[in-house]
Write a structure and sequence with these properties.
CATH superfamily: MFS general substrate transporter like domains
Distance between the termini: 47 Å
Structural class: mainly alpha
Number of strands: 0
Strand content: under 5%
Number of helices: 17
CATH architecture: Up-down Bundle
Order of helices and strands: HHHHHHHHHHHHHHHHH
Oligomer: single chain
Shape: globular
Helix content: over 70%
Radius of gyration: 20 Å
Largest sheet: none
Amino acid sequence: MKPTYKTTIFACFVGYIVQAIVNNFAPLLFITFQNTYDIPLSQITLLVTINFGVQLLVDLLSTLFVDKIGYRTSIVIAQVFSAAGLILLTILPEVMPPFAGILLAVIVYAIGGGIIEVLISPIMESCPTDNKEKAMSLLHSFYCWGHVGVVLISTAFFALFSIENWRVLAYIWAVIPLINGVIFLKTPIAPLIADGEKGMTLPELFKSKTFWLLVVMMVCSGASEQAVSQWASAFAEMGLGISKTAGDLAGPMAFAVLMGSARAFYGKYGDKINLDKFMAGSAILGIFAYLLASLVPNPAVNLIGCAVCGFSVGIMWPGTFSKAASALRTGGTAMFALLALAGDLGCSAGPTLVGFVAGAFGGNMKAGILAATIFPAVMVLCLIGKRKKD
């Protein structure tokens, strides 16, 4: 059967599942890395920072090479690097200093993750669909379902075969980007900007006040999402004193299910909902969720706060991308790359802030989560500012 744009959309969905794998598999192993390789919490925090830091650098550099080598070549390269990093995660810690080996593997799959973040949204945007905002939200929901799958399947695997066999699971996860790379080799990919139109240059983007407001919103989106997501498992285990399996199910999986539900909900009913109001309401809910997770002296309520946070951040990232595509129609690859860069900057800043504040308070994860409340708060201010500007 000849590939069609439906195949392209399917490959984009799987692309975000790959992104979820490279971002969320290793965090499930943080405590294992700490115990097996005697790696301190401060260095574990650095793994998160480097992952998103490398993705951030790739976002920036992609403005220089993506248009030259083409979307197809770039997205296939992304799948290959994602698979290679997962495989190297199992090999390098055994043949070199463990932390250096893990760090190098993280860098490799972060390169793939960075390219995916830049390209999946514009590839999806270029596909012929009826409602771009709904399609974008539905696309981003697959990151969440990928996150759920990573946590659920990994947790089941660890329960059945022991966490000592995590390397086998890493090989299994690596198969997904390899297959998706083959699909991207054959499926049609349309140009983002129509023939006869010229994309905005970097100086033109930098002169746009709307662009800079969107940049701040992307930073807040990434930080609001990953500040809880990356630390949910460790927060449940260390801060709430529950088991590894229960921690993974109650922490990151509940977060991801609700985040995906928010995106799928807008993906289905977005044509009937005002995007600005939905984003503002979600950000306010996020503030409330962070406070529940960090201030209430009840572990069950803290976990509910983490889960609700997932729903609250669901629309932030795809919503900001949709607003950018609408407001700056000829922004092109440069705009999507720089917004992805801003989002990944937030993805790095959010968990890093949580980790360092928690470390400063003797490993108090609640203190770290409380500090991260600043991100949804700034998002509310940005949405108010954009509404006044409009």
